[in-house]
Specification:
The chain has 4 helices and 2 strands. By secondary structure, the protein is mainly α. The model has no long low-confidence stretch (mean pLDDT 95). InterPro entries: BH2638-like_sf, UPF0223.
Length: 88
């Protein structure tokens, strides 16, 4: 994709990489589908880095604005699903 992922200058290099992996998982959910467990794992790591709801909303909204993919909807679908593939 031809856009930049949102991140904070306060994060370590590894945290930036992990947040990018989360956003890549969202892209995968929209483009091909992703295993629920993989998305859940990446979301949990994202929440370790971005624990606050306000910050989560800010970064997810920034990502949706540039990509057109909604992390909120993908995570909601993941939470409602028991197992299997998450395909948006």
């Amino acid at each position: 994709m031809e856009y930049q992922y949102p991140f904070s200058m306060d994060w370590s290099t590894q945290e930036v990489i992990d947040v990018v992996h989360f956003f890549e998982a969202i892209e995968k959910a929209y483009e091909k589908g992703i295993k629920r467990d993989e998305l859940l794992s990446r979301y949990r790591r994202f929440k370790e880095i971005v624990p606050g709801k306000a910050d989560e909303k800010k970064f997810c909204n920034e990502f949706e604005e540039v990509s057109g993919y909604s992390p909120y909807r993908a995570v909601k679908k993941m939470k409602e699903s028991e197992s299997g593939l998450i395909k948006m």
